[in-house]
Specification:
The complex is a heterodimer of chains A (about 250) and B (about 270). In chain A, about 25% of the residues lie in helices and about 25% in strands. Chain A is built from 4 helices and 7 strands, in the order αααββαβββββ. Chain A has helices at about 1-15, 30-65, 70-75, 95-100; strands at about 75-85, 90, 115, 120-125, 130-145, 150-165, 165-180. The radius of gyration of chain A is 23 Å and the shape is globular. Chain B is of the alpha+beta class and about 270 residues long. Chain B is about 30% helix and about 25% strand. Chain B has 5 helices and 9 strands. Chain B is globular. The chains are: A alpha+beta (about 250), B alpha+beta (about 270). The interface between A and B is large, with 70 and 69 residues.
């Protein structure tokens, strides 16, 4: 981030040389070329800043979500932004997102709660126009509730972002938990299923995709293309799920 | 602010033109400054690109997408993971993965996450080579694992690829955890396929101690990391300790390296 700023400053100092009051003719080619290059570099620096902003937005959401700061977390969503966690369905708009998060503990959590969702390993793709972006993330999950054993989890995030009035926001937060297990037992001896939609506060839409956590082995769709071949990462080899029958 | 940049810059060029008439000297100097700027922006983009590449490698490992994974490598890439030895070339990268870990495809009941964290990327001055030190945080059906990577990348026709993957292990343990269980390092004939070349260095995993050399110097002092002389980078304890000094005299095989131990018994 700071490095990108420094580059912009360099552009400024380059420009500051020209405070002359004289107006003269100037070879059109050189002028176009300098202007075109500055414009192109300005765009490239802007895309770097966008990717940084999206990374920080997501990390910020993670810190809020971990501690049950639901109001702060919901503020990071665009007006029609959506929140989807596993098989719990889709909640749309800041108010619904805020209420949906109460399903993960009281506001500010409470004694005995742990809601760690580490959002790491980002692959961020900013659209060429700098108005939208996507990000794939992954990380461990550590959960606790009063009177229950601790839970280990792991999963993938595929989020969408939108720049709204110059500020990056969540257009879509989508967490695909891949596996949950009891802390004391581990994957080989304990596998916990995903929760379905809440009866207390039903979602606005059903889950966008029906899948099982482990022992299922679903591949969340990739928001980015293969970094070397440039081909879309669709139809990758995947065993059909013996329960959901998907694929 | 951005609009100001553009208009001021064009005034700058105009102003200089007054004194020179033809292609102004300032235009050349502006061009040189823009070249330098291009280099710096490209470097930032390249740093992002190789981090992205390494993370994409991890997402392919997690779901056993070996064909896609092998496409991340240069044709002449090398791969060395754990104590298994060196595999030479992209086809062998694919063969290693498919033979050792099964054919492509996410399989029911399996978990083999190699989460790619903590990358420190660097790009060469000419912008053609890159390096990353990073780690995999392994969370799998079998338990826990901690490889570290010191990888090399190459830009071919504008596209970054992995040209060398070096992933020595720090620690592997069952779900019981490293307080109760530690697996020893892998070795060339532990499982198929055999490597093209033996391991480029021999070391032990936790509870022993090993540091893969850093591709970068200490960022504050500028001092490079220098492994203890003649120790092939293998440590039983931190360098300079008595345990480490003793380990250099006890249990070495004739070539000066440490042998591979039996797995620890409970």
């Amino acid at each position: 981030m700071m490095r990108a700023r420094k580059i912009l400053l360099s552009v400024c100092s380059l420009a500051a040389v020209g405070l002359s009051p004289f107006i003269v003719t100037m070879p059109a080619v050189a002028q176009d070329s300098v202007q075109a290059r500055i414009a192109a570099y300005r765009d490239r620096v802007a895309r770097l800043e966008d990717a940084d902003a999206v990374e920080n937005l997501t990390a910020t959401f993670g810190f809020y979500f971990d501690k049950g700061l639901w109001a702060d977390a919901a503020d990071l969503f665009a007006r029609n932004g959506s929140f989807e966690y596993g098989q719990s369905g889709v909640y749309i708009g800041q108010d619904h997102v805020r209420r949906a998060m109460l399903l993960y503990g009281p506001q500010g959590l409470a004694q005995g709660y742990l809601n760690n969702h580490m959002m790491l390993q980002p692959i961020i793709t900013v659209a060429p126009d700098g108005k939208t972006a996507t990000g794939r993330w992954q990380g461990p999950v550590q959960l606790a509730e009063p009177g229950q054993d601790g839970i280990w989890g792991v999963g993938i995030y595929e989020n969408e972002y939108v720049k709204d009035g110059g500020v990056w926001k969540f257009a879509k937060f989508h967490f695909y938990p891949m596996a949950f297990t009891e802390y004391d037992k581990g994957w080989a001896r304990s596998l916990l299923p995903l929760k379905g939609p809440s009866a207390l506060f039903p979602p606005d839409k059903p889950p966008t995709v029906v899948y099982r956590s482990m022992p299922g082995n679903y591949i969340p769709p990739f928001s980015y293309k293969h970094p070397v071949t440039g081909k879309p990462l669709t139809d990758l080899p995947e065993e059909p799920d013996s329960v959901t029958g998907r694929k | 602010m951005r609009r100001t940049i553009l208009s001021s810059a064009s005034y700058a060029v105009l102003a200089v033109a007054l004194f020179t008439g033809t292609i102004p000297a300032f235009a050349q100097s502006a061009s040189a400054k823009l070249d330098a700027l291009d280099k710096r922006i490209t470097r930032l983009e390249d740093l992002n690109a190789i981090q992205r590449l390494q993370r994409a490698y991890g997402y392919f490992v997690d779901k056993s997408q070996w064909r896609q994974l092998s496409e991340l490598f240069t044709d002449d890439a090398t791969l060395e993971i754990g104590g298994k030895g060196l595999f030479l070339g992209k086809p062998r990268v694919l063969e290693y993965m498919q033979t050792a870990f099964g054919m492509d495809g996410a399989k029911e009941g399996s978990l083999a996450n190699h989460m790619q964290f903590q990358s420190i990327p660097d790009i060469s001055t000419d912008g053609k080579h890159g390096w990353i030190r990073s780690r995999a945080y392994v969370m799998s059906l079998g338990g826990w694992g901690l490889p570290i990577y010191e990888n090399e990348y190459r830009k071919e026709n504008g596209v970054w690829k992995i040209s060398r993957l070096t992933g020595p292990f720090t620690m592997y343990s069952s779900w019981e955890g490293w307080g109760k269980n530690a697996m020893n390092n892998t070795w060339p004939d532990k499982f198929n396929p055999p490597p093209d070349l033996p391991p480029s260095f021999v070391y032990l995993t936790y509870p022993a101690y090993f540091i893969i050399p850093f591709h970068y110097p200490n960022p504050v002092t500028g001092k490079p990391f220098i492994p203890d002389k003649g120790e092939v980078g293998a440590y039983a304890a931190p360098p300079g300790t008595k345990v480490q000094a003793d380990s250099r005299k006890i249990g070495l095989i004739p070539d000066g390296t440490q042998g591979i131990a039996e797995p620890p018994r409970n």
